[in-house]
Amino acid sequence: xxxxxxxxxxxxxxxxxxxxxxxxxxxxxxxxxxxxxxxxxxxxxxxxxxxxxxxxxxxxxxxxxxxxxxxxxxxxxxxxxxxxxxxxxxxxxxxxxxxxxxxxxxxxxxxxxxxxxxxxxxxxxxxxxxxxxxxxxxxxxxxxxxxxxxxxxxxxxxxxxxx
Length: 163
Hints:
Layout: H1 19-23, H2 34-44, E1 47-48, E2 51-52, H3 68-75, E3 83-88, H4 92-104, E4 111-117, H5 126-141, E5 147-153, H6 156-162
Parallel strand pairs: 3-4, 4-5
Antiparallel strand pairs: 1-2
Helix pairs in contact: 4-5
């Protein structure tokens, strides 16, 4: 498990709490090394079919709401963000934003992606919706050199566009 630490061995920037030394650690979990705590975080991520499903009610997003130290540690643990399962609904722009935010934290870790397009465009203005989906697929393809395992499912009407 990789954790990106500063040269002095602490979490980056102001993540090291100087008051911790003066008042001691109230909870034993605060004495765990960041690498070990990061491994605990990784095992806390619920996975369905081997992929993490983003949710504000589950790790790693939930871990960032516990305390500042955990948020910084989670954000600086690329392996927590290297797997994602997205079910794309309209509007695709929200899915692209979620994907971009998630994957940006994965650094250069190999990616495990599961993308499913669950909605088909209506007959009104399908070109606009196809354009957004094309942009999303281009975004995914831009990271293809990092793909370890990818599962992309789309309705038949999108196949020609994606191929």
